[in-house]
């Protein structure tokens, strides 16, 4: 495993930094809750729990049992990818960090942030198809080029790639399910198609990895990792599908009509 | 909305709900029975065309989405309308047959994504697979035609 040495040396440093960032982000969220509670009704504690869960899930890709092995073992690497790029973003988005930020910030800064969310750039990258390309396309680059090997040699590439996986995963999530502040909205069918296409390409990529795992990965390990990516992706994307369909169901089923039929039946 | 329109819309929605659930269910049956329990199908067949990898991924992603969307659509219909359960089943059988037939012809044969079973004479398996698909499809279509004449008679009388 000579080729992993570069990362191996720095890995404890990366782990410590991630844990520090995780703790800071939780303290920041609690601080924002306190500030927001002075101006608005108090922020629900369950969202703090979702935030903590999301931060812990993301940190789990680097530290803990999976994280410890992730830079040496492809299966652990893939489990980390599912945690960092897919599961953590769902928890984090559901804790509504952008809404909390806008509430906590002084009005003038909140206005600046909201202007930022309304720029054409923000509009472009929150288009579900653009977000899918950034997310899934990035994965194709990692596993279908030499990037997977290079990122284990260069610490800088390692950081950039993981940051990208997390940010693109988060962007992908908020481009599909509107649980937080959303400035540009797309129709349900449009987001549904983007989600199906993205999941389809995710499945295809995992089969391509099965066919030819990245260089330096033992074949058996590569195949097990690919299957984990395939089925793990199904499970996590199922959460996104259920949330999207539930929102759609609520939007086409007026509550009034529901109670009207119920009273008619009595 | 007039009464007739409401009935028509409920009829289309319940049929669509059935088809979506049928497609998703057959994909699940395929995965659970043939991939996991029997292990006849392989996760990956090295004879697969590169295009096949993508079409299979998209098909299975759609099937996963379909079953969830179908269930929520069913919940929607039951909340708002009275509906014909036969029409729902017509949709389900059509969906089951359609997925099975597409999988049996396009995925297995044209794109060679994987075969039904390995190390055996594949022909009887292919015939059984596709004949059962056509049967399911015919059951679905016959049920659907029955609900059509049913509503037509109701509207006429």
Automatic annotation (TrEMBL), chain A:
ATP-binding as UniProt keyword: no
Keyword field: Cell membrane, Membrane, Transmembrane, Transmembrane helix
The record ties this protein, via Pfam families, to: Caa3_CtaG (PF09678)
Subcellular location field: Cell membrane
Main location as per UniProt: membrane
Protein origin, superkingdom: Bacteria
One annotated Gene Ontology cellular component of this protein: plasma membrane
Q: Transmembrane residues, as ranges? A: 18-36, 48-68, 74-94, 121-143, 155-179, 188-210, 230-249
User: What InterPro entries has UniProt attached to this entry?
Assistant: Caa3_assmbl_CtaG-rel
Membrane topology annotation: Multi-pass membrane protein
What is the recorded name of this protein? Answer: Putative membrane protein
In the record, what lineage is assigned to the organism producing the protein?
Bacteria, Bacillati, Bacillota, Bacilli, Bacillales
UniProtKB/TrEMBL annotation, chain B:
Q: Does the keyword Membrane apply?
A: yes
| Domain of life of the source | Bacteria
Q: Tell me the InterPro entries matching this sequence.
A: DUF2243_membrane
Mind telling me what this protein is named?
A: Uncharacterized membrane protein
Species whose genome carries this gene: Lacicoccus qingdaonensis
Q: Where are the transmembrane segments?
A: 14-38, 58-76, 88-107, 127-145
Q: Which UniProt keywords apply?
A: Membrane, Transmembrane, Transmembrane helix
One Pfam family cited in the UniProt record for this chain:
DUF2243
């Amino acid at each position: 495993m000579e080729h992993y040495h570069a990362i191996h040396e720095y890995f404890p440093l990366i782990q410590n930094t991630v844990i520090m960032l995780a703790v800071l982000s939780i303290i920041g969220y609690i601080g924002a809750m306190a500030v927001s509670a002075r101006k608005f009704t108090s922020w629900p504690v369950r969202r703090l729990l979702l935030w903590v869960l999301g931060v812990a899930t993301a940190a789990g890709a680097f530290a803990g049992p999976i994280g410890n092995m992730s830079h040496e073992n492809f299966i652990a690497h893939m489990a980390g990818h599912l945690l960092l790029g897919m599961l953590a973003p769902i928890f984090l988005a559901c804790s509504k960090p952008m809404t909390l930020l806008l509430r906590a910030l002084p009005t003038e800064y909140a206005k600046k942030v909201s202007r930022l969310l309304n720029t054409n750039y923000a509009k472009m990258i929150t288009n579900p198809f653009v977000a899918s390309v950034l997310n899934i396309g990035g994965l194709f680059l990692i596993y279908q080029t030499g990037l997977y090997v290079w990122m284990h040699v260069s610490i800088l590439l390692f950081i950039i790639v993981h940051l990208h996986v997390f940010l693109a995963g988060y962007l992908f999530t908020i481009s599909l399910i509107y649980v937080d502040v959303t400035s540009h909205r797309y129709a349900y069918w449009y987001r549904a198609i983007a989600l199906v296409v993205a999941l389809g390409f995710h499945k295809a990529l995992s089969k391509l990895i099965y066919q030819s795992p990245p260089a330096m990965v033992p074949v058996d390990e590569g195949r097990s990792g690919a299957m984990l990516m395939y089925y793990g992706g199904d499970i996590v994307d199922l959460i996104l599908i259920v949330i999207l369909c539930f929102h759609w169901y609520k939007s086409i089923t007026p509550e009034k009509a529901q109670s009207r039929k119920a009273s008619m039946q009595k | 909305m007039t009464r007739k329109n409401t009935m028509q819309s409920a009829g289309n929605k319940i049929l669509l709900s059935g088809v979506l659930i049928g497609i998703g269910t057959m994909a699940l049956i395929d995965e659970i029975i043939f991939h996991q329990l029997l292990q006849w199908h392989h996760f990956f067949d090295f004879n697969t065309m590169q295009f096949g990898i993508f079409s299979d991924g998209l098909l299975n992603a759609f099937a996963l989405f379909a079953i969830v969307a179908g269930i929520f659509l069913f919940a929607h219909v039951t909340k708002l309308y009275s509906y014909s359960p036969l029409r729902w089943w017509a949709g389900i059988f059509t969906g089951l047959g359609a997925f099975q037939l597409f999988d049996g012809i396009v995925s297995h044969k044209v794109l060679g994504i994987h075969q039904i079973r390995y190390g055996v004479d594949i022909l009887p398996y292919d015939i059984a697979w596709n004949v059962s698909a056509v049967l399911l499809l015919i059951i679905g279509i016959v049920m659907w035609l029955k609900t059509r004449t049913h509503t037509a008679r109701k509207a006429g009388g």
